[in-house]
Amino acid sequence: MESKCKETTERRSFVRIDDKVILKYRKTNSLELQAGTESFSTNANSFTIKAQFAAIDQKNRQARSILEQHSTELANHLKAIDEKLDLLADIAFEMDHDLSKLSTQKVNLSAGGTSFLAQKPLELGTLLELWLLLLPSHTGIITYATVIYCKRSNDEGSKQYPYKIGVEFKNIREEDADLIACHVLKKEANERRRRPKMTCK
After folding, report:
1. Helix axes 2-11, 61-70, angle to 10 degrees
2. Nearest CA among 46, 25, 20, 59 for reference residue 169
3. What angle in degrees, to the nearest 10, is found between the helix axes of 174-194 and 49-59?
4. What global pTM score does this model have?
5. SS3 for 35?
6. CATH numbers and ranges of domains, the chain
7. CA–CA distance, 48 with 169 (Å, rounded to integer)
8. Which H or E run includes 90?
9. For residue 87, pLDDT beyond 80
């Protein structure tokens, strides 16, 4: 686990993947940006509950690793607790957010920012409050972002969503950047495993 997190820290600024996520955003302003996460709407806790659990796990990772090395029974017990918390987090999320009404969309994602298709253009420098739900873990992250480009899209579905928006995360929490980086690296590794292996004749 420790080596994986180290790799994440070193590579997260430039590793990007094409992914499908649930994403929504709204325009905001510098006053809300200065206010930080306190300005987020009240149902943020249920949306970000898994991210909050992951942040706590990250802080206790080293101590937990030591304990698990000393006791297989304790390791299994902690794993069972994690599974129960995941179930509770899923229930809390579903009580406030109806997934059937949330559609996925294609994005290009890294720990530093993302790009997505949109129906309307956004001016460069526009500040956004961005809600990002990573799949299939249903890990929700809320952060701010700045529009760094807006251009006409040639992607599939561009008739309905003719603009491609690129944003850079702004004031993102370190723990959330780590979560995105881990998600990106895991997806990247899965893609590599699915690629057919080249054989030499």
Report:
1. 160
2. 25
3. 100
4. 0.79
5. helix
6. 2-41+100-194 (2.40.10.220)
7. 17
8. helix 72-96
9. yes
